[in-house]
Amino acid sequence: MGSHHGPMWRHFIDKIPEHDLSTKTVLDFGCNQGGFLRTLYAARPFKFGLGVDIAVESVRRANELKGDMPLDYRIADQLSDWSGRFDIAFSYEVLYLLPDLAAHARQIREVLREGGTYYAVIGCHADNPLWPRWRGLIAETTNLPVQDYSPDDCASAFISSGFEVAARKFGYDGFVPVDEQSQYYATVVERLTYADEVKVLFRMVKSG
Questions:
Q1: 184: DSSP letter
Q2: Which of 34, 93, 119, 129 is the most exposed place for a label (fewest CB within 10 A)?
Q3: In this structure, how many other beta carbons lie within 10 angstroms of the beta carbon of residue 189?
Q4: 152 phi and psi angles, rounded to 5 deg
């Protein structure tokens, strides 16, 4: 995900209640080229951030772009050494590409400290009224199989793994770019409704 996601990322950050991250260690799961953690650090500086992704080239590029920020980027299968290390974890539009939600929930639980929080945004889900159109379009642009999870599926996976789960509408209230032609949106109202009402922001807290 590139810089054009910046307004959505900033809205995401604005919606989390943790304002002082200066002592926190954070994880971005599915970091792509690292833009979210750089955006987060600029808004709410943290102690250390790790981004993980399956794409080797994206991880390499993320490390090139981090400058002197306290960031590291690694391949996603390298999380086994980070048990209990993170206070907060994030993912943005990643869950629908994961083949096993339960395994992901267990992995996030393992790397979070007790009481740690995972924030996950998903708009690509089975309850999205645009999903029948989108699913095929997305499948053409990703190397990963697209999953048909509903928000209920996401919640159930984390509840079963020992998280306290809450959710809200993403509620994006900024200006949404409008292109003359889009494969994803037929109308302006579809764009606005998706960003405001369809995207879901989960807050999952690791409980005892």
A1: S
A2: 129
A3: 9
A4: -65, -40
What is d(CA 126, CA 149) in angstroms, rounded to the nearest whole number? 6
The CA–CA distances, whole Å, from 72 to 34, 39, 49, 52, 130 equal: 9, 14, 6, 9, 36
Phi, psi of 25 (to 5 degrees): -105, 130
The secondary structure of residue 171, as a DSSP letter, is -
DSSP sequence for 17-86: S----TT-EEEEET-TTSHHHHHHHHHS--SEEEEEES-HHHHHHHHHH-TTSSEEEEEGGGGGGGTT-E
| Model confidence pLDDT, tens digit, residues 49-99 | 999 999 999 999 999 999 999 999 999 887 888 999 999 999 999 999 999
Outline where 54-178 has alpha helix (H): 56-65, 101-111, 131-139, 151-160
Give the CA distances from residue 189 to residues 66, 130, 141, 178, 193, in Å, rounded to whole numbers and listed in that order: 37, 12, 25, 10, 6
Q: Which domains does the chain have, with CATH numbers?
A: 3-206 (3.40.50.150)
Q: By C-alpha distance, which of 55, 52, 36, 44 is closest to 16?
A: 44
User: Is the full-model pTM beyond 0.90?
Assistant: yes
In this structure, are residues 50 and 74 in contact, taking their beta carbons and an 8 Å threshold?
yes
DSSP assigned state of 7: H
Of the candidates 198, 183, 99, the one whose C-alpha atom is nearest the C-alpha of residue 140 is: 183
Q: Which two tokens stand for residue 207?
A: 């409980």
- Token pair 């984390």 in the structure block, residue: 158
The amino acid present at 29, given as its one-letter code, is F
